[in-house]
Amino acid sequence: MSRLFGYARSLTSQRADADDLFQESVLKALRAKRVPNDQAAYRAWLFRILRNTFIDQIRRTGGDRRKPDGEPPLQSAEVWHHEDTLINALTVRSGMARLAPPHREIIALVDFAGFSYSEIAEFLELPVGTVMSRLSRARQALLHTVETSNVHVLPVERTRKVK
């Protein structure tokens, strides 16, 4: 369920919208008359329900009107001890928010949700090669977005030892 919510979050970019999308998708799944028995098929089925629900919402509202929302404040201890990891995570999150929806979706399915290329190909009804090329283009777009962001590595000052 955490992967499913993470996928909802990557599609919507706003926590409240992700909550609504996730809940609506789970309700649809619970109301379904036929449920896949195989674990992989069940997981793909849940993700497909969520994706289709998101597409329906976009069609209803007439477009993709998402804006990244503010993140909860970071704990000072986390920042102090794990600043590189947090900076990297925030940089990727910021870059993901600026990607086009198809790029966000393919990266979320592979890198966040952990689907294989063949699972995604079946899920999106595409050839495996198309999934691979879309993922490559999406990762290049993310890299470009991160490289052109305002986050830059600061040079480390070397201090002399005092004897």
Structure description:
The protein has 8 helices and no strands. The termini are far apart. The protein is mainly alpha-helical and 163 residues long. It has helices at 2-12, 15-31, 39-61, 76-81, 83-98, 101-112, 117-124, 128-147. It has 2 domains: 1-65, Rna Polymerase Sigma Factor, Chain: A (Orthogonal Bundle), CATH 1.10.1740; 74-149, Winged helix-like DNA-binding domain superfamily/Winged helix DNA-binding domain (Arc Repressor Mutant, subunit A). The radius of gyration is 19 Å and the shape is globular.
Which features characterize this protein?
163 residues, mainly alpha, Rna Polymerase Sigma Factor, Chain: A, Arc Repressor Mutant, subunit A, 69% helix
In CATH, the architecture of the largest domain is Orthogonal Bundle
Order of SSEs, N→C? HHHHHHHH
Mean pLDDT score: 77
* Tally of individual helices: 8
Low-confidence segments? 65-81
Radius of gyration: 19 Å
What fold name stands as the CATH topology of the largest domain?
A: Arc Repressor Mutant, subunit A
**Gap between N and C termini:** 57 Å
CATH superfamily caption of the largest domain: Winged helix-like DNA-binding domain superfamily/Winged helix DNA-binding domain
Shape, principal axes of CA atoms: globular
Q: What CATH first level of the largest domain would be assigned? A: Mainly Alpha
Strand runs, count: 0
SSE layout:
Layout: H1 2-12, H2 15-31, H3 39-61, H4 76-81, H5 83-98, H6 101-112, H7 117-124, H8 128-147
Helix pairs in contact: 1-2, 1-3, 1-6, 2-3, 3-7, 5-8, 6-8, 7-8
